[in-house]
Amino acid sequence: MPRRKVRSVETAVEQRRGRKLLQYAGTTAGVAALSAVLHEWGQPFDTVNIALVYLFPVLFSAVYWGLVPSFYAAAAGMLAFDYFFVPPLHSFSVADLRYLLSFAVYLAVAALTATLAARLKQQVKLSKEREAHTAALYALSRQMTAVGEIKALLDNIARQVSETVGAQIAIYLPGGRSELARTAWSPGDHAFGQGESAMVIAKWVLEHGRMAGRGTGTLGEFPGLFVPLRTEERTYGVIAVRADGETLSADTRRLLEAFGGLAATAIARVKLSEEAKLAQLTAESERIRTALLDSVSHELRTPLATIIGSATGLIEGDEVFSPADRLELLGTIRDGALRMNRLVTNLLGMVKLESGMLALRRDWVDAEDMIGVVLAQVKGFVGRRRIDVRIQEPAPYFPGDEVLLEQVLVNIVSNAIKYSPDGSDIVIAVRQSGSWVRISVADNGTGIADADRERIFDKFYRGSRTSGTTGTGLGLAICKGIVEAHGGTITAAPRAERGTLVTVALPAGDPEMPEGWQRQEEEV
């Protein structure tokens, strides 16, 4: 590293020396060319006018090369004027001492012209630099407001600062254990800022919140300037700028400080956003956990109490109950167990949907057979309600996971039974329309309020008209997940007269079973 640094400094010095030599050579050539032109065609002009012409090289050198080359142009022009146009000609001696006053006036005017031109050039240069700096700050601020991740934000900052300053950039942020790490860098030399000395300086800057490195009073020998990414409250990180051969200008350092303030503000905004998202996620998780525990405990307690009471009656009062009574108690135990089984099945289904582990065992499904299985599962709690099944002839066949689709229909039909009064009708209809198979369940229950239609399929959400009926709010959410995993849709809407209409639309598939379809598993 030291040898590389020495070579970089020597190269910069040699390049600067070469530029100076070219400037002086150009000035000399310009004065010589002007002298040749004036010597050939300037005889009719007065010597005072000829002297004024020699101010042009002075002005040119001041505007394009700076103050020192312009002073050199003034001296060279005076000597050329004396040699070619002041008697005795082709000699540096002066016959008339009044020309010495002319030389003095010429040099004074040349010096004033060079100074004003050089100052104007410097002001124009500073104005352009400040305009570029302002544009760079504006561009960086716009980019930072559109980025919501720390890594992308730091990459944008490194690229923008590198392009503006024209140097390699490295950005350091504290890690998970408060260890400083080089997090981002500009395209190009990725090795800059990786050494142990760079890490030591970056840690010092992070702890003290002040600049260090090249051009400062702290560790000034290092070939780079380290600037804190700081707001009024804290320091979020450090940005390092490579400066091998020379100290960065005061304007560049102020620009880097402005970049650091903008970057720190953006980092603070992103971190605050991430913390807000984490807090929201934590609150949502807590809400779901509480709702789940409340719903599950209530839904399990009711069938468990029924099962325990019926089982206790059978055990303790075996001689009291008639065979019909015992059969009724056994039916009650079975219904309670089925209710608990549905609850556990729904919970497991929701876990699989949330974790992305739901696997579809695709096969061709006979709609008529599937409806028959669903009716067998719900017949224990239909009560005095009438279920009317209307299946298009011939019965549609469609691809899907029959077990999961049966769970969907069991949940929908169970809701229809639960929210419909005894003696009412429930209609299950199946028909194929084009490339879709539509299965609808219509009841004459309490219906769905308009305010509930958008959220009826959300987890743990229960409609405003279900307060008198127990439930977890998971059934329709699971139905939606399973149906969408099949590439279908599910909707719920109030019926015109009374009740609710739930419609499931599933892709019908091709009439002939594709090869390899049967028992194919697909992760969704």
TrEMBL record:
Organism: Paenibacillus lycopersici
Reaction equations catalysed: ATP + protein L-histidine = ADP + protein N-phospho-L-histidine
GO cellular component: plasma membrane
Domain of life: Bacteria
Name this protein carries in UniProt: histidine kinase
Transmembrane portions of the chain: 21-42, 62-85, 97-118
Matching SMART domains: HATPase_c, HisKA
Lineage, opening ranks: Bacteria, Bacillati, Bacillota, Bacilli, Bacillales
Any Pfam family the entry gives: GAF_3
EC number, as in UniProt: 2.7.13.3
Entry keyword set: ATP-binding, Kinase, Membrane, Nucleotide-binding, Phosphoprotein, Transferase, Transmembrane, Transmembrane helix, Two-component regulatory system
Chief localisation class: membrane
Cell membrane keyword on record: no
Subcellular location: Membrane
InterPro entries: GAF, GAF-like_dom_sf, HATPase_C_sf, HATPase_dom, His_kinase_dom, HisK_dim/P_dom, HisK_dim/P_sf, Histidine_kinase_KdpD
Membrane association type: Multi-pass membrane protein
One term of GO molecular function: ATP binding
